[in-house]
Specification:
four-stranded mixed β-sheet; about 35% strand; alpha/beta
Length: about 130
């Protein structure tokens, strides 16, 4: 049996991404090393070149751009308006303002420093 531990997002610049996810997104760092940062709630950023080189046991560079619109990083909040204001004030590229999804949830989307699509929605799950 396998047990899910975390999701790892590949990034180009750990300090830039760490700052974004702590300052703009409000995440809490649990532990960190030179090339990897573990946040609370099973979210991890890892330097792309370092992780790929380790995984393939030889020096590697990402072959394609990061953040290629092939995944979405999803968060929920109790205060969507405050989240929009914080993201907007940071100068982050907004993909779209608050819209209502077909199931009734309000969300907005933007890009992180590496171009990964990030969504913040009003809370749907139980705390």
């Amino acid at each position: 049996m396998h047990h899910f531990i975390n999701t790892i997002i590949l990034v180009r610049d750990i300090p830039v991404s760490r700052d974004f996810y702590t300052r703009v997104m409000g995440l809490t760092v649990e532990r960190e090393y030179d090339t990897v940062v573990f946040f609370r709630d099973h979210f991890v950023i890892h330097n792309a070149e370092s992780l790929l080189s380790n995984a393939y046991a030889s020096p590697q560079k990402p072959e394609a751009p990061l953040g290629r619109a092939n995944l979405e990083i999803y968060f929920e909040t109790d205060d969507l308006a405050a989240s929009v204001a914080r993201v907007r004030a940071s100068g982050t590229k907004i993909v779209h303002d608050i819209v209502e999804q077909p199931w009734g949830q309000k969300v907005f989307r933007f890009l992180d420093p590496d171009g990964h699509l990030v969504e913040i929605g009003e809370r749907m799950s139980q705390p």
